Amino acid sequence: MTTANDRPAGTALDFTPAPGAAPLSRMVAAQAGAEIRAILRNGEQLLLTMIIPVLLLVGFSAAPLVNVGEGPRVDFMAPGVLALAVMSTAFTGQAIATGFERRYGVLKRLGATPLSRGGLMLAKTLAVIAVETVQIAVITGVALALGWRPGGSPLAALALLLLGTAAFSGLGLLMAGTLRAEATLAGANLVYLLLLGCGGVVFPLSTFPDAMEKALELLPISALAGGLRSVLTDGAGLPVAALTVLAAWAAVSLLAASRTFRWE
Amino acid sequence: MDSPAVEIIDLVKRYGPTTAIDGLSLRAARGAVTAILGPNGAGKTSTIEICEGFRRADGGTVSVLGLDPARTELRARVGVMLQAGGVPPAMRCGEWLRLAARFHARPLDPQALLDRLGLAEHARTPYRRLSGGQQQRVSLAAAVIGRPELVFLDEPTAGLDPQARHACWDLVGELRAAGVSVVLTTHHMDEAEKLADHVVIIDRGTVVAEGTPAALTGAERQLRFRARPALTLDELLNALPAGSSAKESPAGHYIIEGQVGPELLATVTAWCAAEGVTADDLSIERRTLEDVFLELTGRELR
């Protein structure tokens, strides 16, 4: 009679030492793939990265809930929602995921593999950019269906998206590397809501008092949303002010994150 | 290849005002299994995490495969099993092993390793849904998948059921047979006795004894029995051959050491008859590492 214990112990394994690191490109690709699958598998993340932006885009474009000035509402909404999508992935999603990776010892364990910390950060960045690409494709598709006809320089828009991603990644990693995972979870969601409300995403900054408007324009979300709007909707050239604000946030936050990040 | 797997000289590690490791020195030979044995809080994990490059020493020198533990080239050559965690809870265990394999040039086949460790039917199960023993085996698998020269296992069998413990012991035996150096921590004496070529007993951050399990426990056997406490042992000591010893430790437990054989047994039982003592649980055994630890520190290991 055969029982579970009689089964052969599996394929013979040769434990003879044969150490060696894989090429960096293979390690980074593998880690980026794992990060992308983790983001796409996580229901809450998907809600944040895909469902909320699309609902906001459709809802606010269709119904006259806010006064967005001249022109079709979708012309105002689409760039704002693109900025929101970048923030949700690069900042909120990345901060929460990385915070819990730190808590569960995943960052520590990965530190004992041949994948270097630089390689890990590169993989995270690639994963964020890949998810953003999907978000931008979906949001643009929906916006086009709603009648959006973007103009302006695609390169200027790309520069804004990349600098925005850098700034939000820096802020997300700054939180994830210093706060407890639960505090990061709460804080990243709170900041997301605040910036959604006050960052010119769906409510124009002009609805705020003048003094406040000037201050709010310095937020990374306002710079990204406003910059994208000026390029894609108004066909403006390089939005220097917005790019400067984003570059400053990126430099400060990434520097602070690299100085303070705790891996365990 | 002449350098030992691990060489630690006068290691010191402080956490604030607490000195966790206080002048610890040890050497783990290549191709051997070295067990660091000690009670909780003795400094086992701090020591191994300094070797793994996770923590920096405050004093002394540590070399792993002849290199500073901070050297990145060691990451490919050394396999690590943390005491707990280290795997994303939502990740499927097969996916985690495939990822770990992709970091290495000539990895083991993840599926074969899952089969070998009895995890094949759980390949698609998220890590957090596995039992504690299954999670330990996933971590063990990830530690060896890159075909390392040296593996560090921090309490590899903590919380495992007996069957899973034996599976882990078998794997350590196979690693040793294949020429892999293994350094593990444990607070199970039987694990150290069974697995290790070399046992280092540490307590309060320093080495209190080391050697092969046989050398530590001694070739001598001892006779033990239980009887009413506070018997006078003078008569017995007179009757025993020279070089023997008799003591009561703890109360009501008697240990006779010396040339334990039929004659000594006869001497003890004759003395019992003369004294009117009924010896319970009379047995002849070897000293255990537990006894060694108790003698050295005056405390129980667990």
From TrEMBL, chain A:
Pfam families: ABC2_membrane. It is found in: Cell membrane; Membrane. One of its GO terms (biological process) is response to antibiotic. The keyword Membrane applies. One of its GO terms (molecular function) is ABC-type transporter activity. Keywords: Antibiotic resistance, Cell membrane, Membrane, Transmembrane, Transmembrane helix, Transport. One of its GO terms (cellular component) is ATP-binding cassette (ABC) transporter complex. Belongs to the ABC-2 integral membrane protein family. This is Transport permease protein.
